Amino acid sequence: MSGPSTYVPKSGFGRWMDSRLPLMRFAHDTIITYPTPKNLNFWYAFGAILTFMLGIQILTGIVLAMHYVANAGLAFDSVEGIMRNINYGWLIRYMHANGATFFFIAVYIHMFRGLYYGSYKSPREVIWILGVILYLLMVATAFFGYVLPWGQMSFWGATVITNFFSALDQIVPHLGSAIATWLWGGFAVGDATLNRFFSLHYLLPFVIAGVVGLHIWALHVPGNNNPLGIDTKGPQDMLPFHPYYTVKDSFYVALFALIYLAFVFYAPDFFGNPDNYTPANPVVTPPDIVPEWYLLPFYAMLRSVPQKLIGVLVMAGSLLTLVFVPWLDTSKVRSTRFRPMMKQFFWLFVFDCLILGYCGSQGADAALHMQGFELPLVWVARVATLYYFGFFWVVMPLLGIIEKPKPLPANISQPVLAAE
Amino acid sequence: MAETTAPEPTRRDFLYIATGGVAAVGAALAAWPFIDQMNPSSAVLALASIEADLSAIQVGQQVVFNWRGHPLFVRRRTPQEIAEAKAVDVASLPDPLARNANLPDNAPATDADRAAKDPQWLIVVGVCTHLGCTPTVSTPQVPQGEYGGWLCHCHGSQYDTAGRIRKGPAPQNLAVPPYTFQSPTKIKVG
Fold first, then answer.
1. Residues A266-296: tens digit of each pLDDT
2. Does B33 touch chain A (CB under 8 A)?
3. Pairwise CB contact (< 8 Å): A162 & B132
């Protein structure tokens, strides 16, 4: 970690251990004394909330794997068995299923916070890119997990997603189909597919945990950004992580857990799709197949393009774009607080993502009806997709040049002292 | 200016490259079993063909069989549906190829190349060529889409009465599987 270590072992065993494996020194420097800007607000609690959710998902997931059977003939019934027969199985499964939803709620807030305060800018580009990798790993894990109950949405979701690769047929004939067959282990999604998805669903969370380690490591080298987006000037700007942020983070983790558990106990199927309580049927597609809510914006972008290969490329590009954000933003000012034009484009972007999510949740030929005037949603999605890419590739580079930012405070104490 | 000369390659340099080369080839060979294990197993490949009895299918009706885990559509078309399919100009189709496993790859997507020899039978794999959903069959009572064939509800692709893509994101006509008529009402697929 950055800066010299201030750890002093207190016992004989501590000294003995410290000269052999300095694990306690590492923990002390990382969690206790790590210097943190003193002006971090509520939005900075989501790192801790995400760590908490990862823990919940791994714990409940390991338990579920003890009772789940990864076999196309038995999977659906084994999940029903967990719900009905296993002691507290209903609780653990609902914690896991809703845990995925709240994991994504937290990650989206965490990402928008990073965008708003410019946390991706030099010297924090690597933290941001590791974050994008973590997000992609989360999407993959969630997708594999959603297939496991082997309901209609599981099956057809797996079919549609794996068929993305068949779009490559339009570049090299048969290449895409060969990749799809290889992913399936058959001519269609089936038993072999379910087994390998289960294996990967178990593996990836531990990969996520590893990359989280890198993400935090990369964070602790330059230290936290802060809501003002200006560099901290010295010890007068900092607080030790413990007890100040351990307590603050714990408070918000508890608050977040309260909302999460309210859904687990009182509306466990709120985010679920009733079609997934129908066993998988390879010859009948449900009339409206939709992905889980957290993927709807990307699904809307896919559907807004009437050509298969380009649709898949647009969707992949929307994710890949995030990697380049540190270099697309040309502004010298990190925090959007001091960027009057960026502030408007940022909130328009948040709204744009919500619009895309809504479009993705509706049927393929849905339309908005307004006083006799009919607006096909696919056109709404097209405009929204254009703004999604425009925000990153046009607005971000241009604003850095044309925008006149507000004056920055001299240090992070100044705005507080001035207000008194 | 200092003069830089590349040092003469030595025996040691050769050994480094040779060892590295062997290690790389060895790693690639060792990786193959771990990649190929994901391909369809012998047991899956062994179930690749089915026989189907068509005698109970009425004119205007479609029956769905299960072939290689996919729905297989066998449709007994009405004279009007056949006439509609025949009237289409092949050059105007989004996908002008027959996509018929029983014909050469470059066969045009005429109705004769899509349907069986007896044109009332249309046998296609019921997998939308966009992202793999099962399209819904259109009937005069419950029309699906504008072309009288099939409509895929996932992303809105529309097929005509010869299973050819007419509108929407799907790039290809519905695939015609390899099949033979063993009698006028019995087929072997695969």
1. 999 999 999 999 999 988 888 878 899 999 9
2. no
3. yes
Active centre residues of B (catalytic): 155
Reference A226, options A109, A335, A128, A115; nearest CA is A335
Alpha-carbon distance of B127 to B150, in angstroms, equals 11
Q: Is the pTM of this model over 0.90?
A: no
List all residues 6 or more positions away from A415 whose beta carbon is below 8 Å from its beta carbon: A228, A409
Taking the CA of residue B1 and the nearest CA in chain A, the distance in Å comes to 38
Whether B161 and B145 have beta carbons less than 8 Å apart is answered as no
Burial string for A102-133 (b: 16+ CB within 10 Å, else e) reads bbbbbbbbbbbbbbbbbbbbeebbbbbbbbbb
Binding-face residues of B in 84-123 toward A, CB within 8 A: none
A-chain residues near B132 (CB < 8 A): 159-160, 162-163, 166
Map out the domains of chain A with their CATH numbers.
36-418 (1.20.810.10)
Burial status of residue A186 (CB atoms within 10 A of its CB: 0-12, 13-18, 19 or more): buried
Please report how the helices A75-84 and A89-116 are oriented relative to each other, as an axis angle in degrees rounded to 10: 100
User: What is the rounded CA–CA span in Å between residue A183 and residue A194?
Assistant: 10
Q: Kind and range of the H or E element at B76?
A: strand B70-76
What ipTM was predicted for this assembly? Answer: 0.77
Say which amino acid occupies A149: P
Residue B168: closest C-alpha in chain A:
A306
